[in-house]
């Protein structure tokens, strides 16, 4: 006796195939890295503020007549502040650094894994000629540029890129985080540690908006340092050369007395009186904090 086979209508088969195809496509897109750098900086815009003097105190600079100086502004690449060359076929971004400002992504990002490599150049500018090399990766950036102390950047969180300080945290213009860290005492700053409870740092917390990374994992001078920033929901990780140096959560900013969650935004790279190079910058979306790091937040 022949067994009857139930045949699904073509419309049902097509729908099932479509669901499978979309699921496979979603999985592929989630794990696929997207490069952020190209020769034309097509994914980026730029902002330039001022050439700051050594005695800068947070006020708008003034000219010889005492009139306020206007910032350079958006998308004016004065003195080749931002240029791209190639190294072994890969685009390399050079930030000259003389004028405070940034390049920032046209797109906002949320729930992502970001990797890049950074190396110092040879030049420093006033007011950092006698100080450490300095730049920064600013994330969850919102609003207009120039709202911070240096009148150069958007409200954001800073993954510090600084000589000897790779992975520090700074709040920029009203942001705040909870960080696993030793509490500050006297003139000492908070110091990150994965063995400590979370403490609140930044605007509205009663604490300074700075926290020192847990350890120095920067590459030797002249070599590239690999940085990784993982953000999911209100949580983030600062990773230097494969080592977690800071664990953060409860991302937010203050609007007057109101605390507002901050889980997405643009990405900025600072121009901060130091010549610096970036390459191999890539990003991918994630659906959860990676398993190997999930215990950091328990």
Give a verbal description of the structure:
With 298 residues, the chain is mostly beta strands. The protein has a 21-stranded mixed β-sheet that branches. The protein starts with 9 loop residues before the first helix and ends with a helix.
List keywords for this structure.
mainly beta; disordered N terminus; 298 residues; 21-stranded mixed beta sheet
Can you give me a brief rundown of this structure?
With 298 residues, the chain is mainly β. It has 2 helices and 21 strands.
Determine the fraction of residues in helical runs and give it as a percent range. under 10%
Order of helices and strands: HEEEEEEEEEEEEEEEEEEEEEH
Sheet of most strands: 21 strands, mixed
What is the global morphology?
globular
Q: From the alpha-carbon coordinates, what is the Rg to the nearest angstrom?
A: 22 Å
* Structure annotation, total helices: 2
Uncertain runs are 1-8, 10-28
Question: Given the helix and strand composition, which structural class is it?
Answer: mainly beta
Number of strands: 21
Strand content: 35-45%
- Look at the structure and give the mean pLDDT: 92
End-to-end Cα distance = 61 Å
